[in-house]
Structure formats: C-alpha cells, structure tokens
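Sequence in, structure out.
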Amino acid sequence: MIQELKKSYGHIFESALLNEIVQVGTYKEVPAGHKLMEIGAYVKGMPLLVSGALKVLREDKNGDELLLYYLEKGDTCSMTMTCCMGQTKSEIRAIAETDTKLIMIPIQYMELWTSKYKSWRNFVFESYHSRLNEMLHTLDSIAFDNLDQRLIHYLKEKTRVNNDNIIHQTHQNIAYELHSSRVVISRLLKKLENKGQIVLHRNAIEIVSLD
C-alpha cells in the first residue's frame, strides 16, 4: 500500500503523514459499478483515491440523479469530509466509474491531522476549492448551456475518465446522470451520429470526434 500511496500522494504529503495513513487507513479495491457511499447513510471514513475513478451524484425529491463530478487518482471528496467532521448523513451517492483502489481514513484522524500537518490542511482546503468549482461548473452548465452542449461535455468526460473511446452506458443511464429524459437523450445522440461524431451500438457509444 505504501508504494501506491507514495505514487499518488508522495508529492503532497510529508513522510510522517504517509506513514500514519498506512498505519490507520484501510486499503480497498472497488469494482466498477460498486456503490461506495449512499445518500442518507452515515459516513465513517474519507476516501483517498490511488487509482481509478468515482462518480459523485445528487438526487432530487423524485429520485432522479444528477452527476456532480468525478474523483480521480490523488483526489478526495470534500463533501465526505464535511459529513464526517459534522457526523451528519451523506447527501451524495458515490459509485465506482472504473475499477478503483482507495484508502479509507477513519473519521477521528481528519481533524487531528488538520492541526498536526500543514500538508494535510492544505490538501483539505484545496479539495474544498476544487470540488466547489466543479459543482459551480455543473450548476452553470444547467443554467446557461443547452442540453446538447452538456451531453457533449458528459461524453468527453466519460471518455477521459475511462481512457476509452467506447462508452458502455445506456441512454437511460445517461438521461439519469444529466437529469433529462431518455427520449431527449436518444434524439440528441442520434443527431451526433448523423453528424459523424459518434457511432451508436447496443448499450454503447463509440466516440469518433467531439471537437
């Protein structure tokens, strides 16, 4: 675990903190599609990603989902930290986008390390800043971008995070994550296919060029 931890966080944390993480953290390998965190559940630890990616979603009162952002290697979830330190229930759902390796940090160490290690404190503040910017970008796209622009951005991000030009996703799942309807998403995808930008397959989308 120490070698993977150093590759992802060695440039951020000092050796003493890395050693503490190894001592108290729990190493997990999470398969793609696994639900790591659920809305309404108490959060008992904070994830540090060493490989792979998680997608973080919110849910409205009707049960419809909205994709907020992705967490990748070297990231953590600031919303998780807030829930942990306030001992409140999670307001987000976190699902493994790809096979993911992570280290779960117990609640009690997060506040302790904030006062003990400057690198940890900076990491926490930077994480808050990064996740806030990503959520603001999501809100801006909903408020100011039309759905076809949001769909293109979604497909680009999926391709980047998965490092694959084949997106294995149903139209219905895309609609859930973009807070839209399957009919609308299918129509927009067909429009992109007619332009030669994608190729539609059964439960998969092949990206040709979205530039």
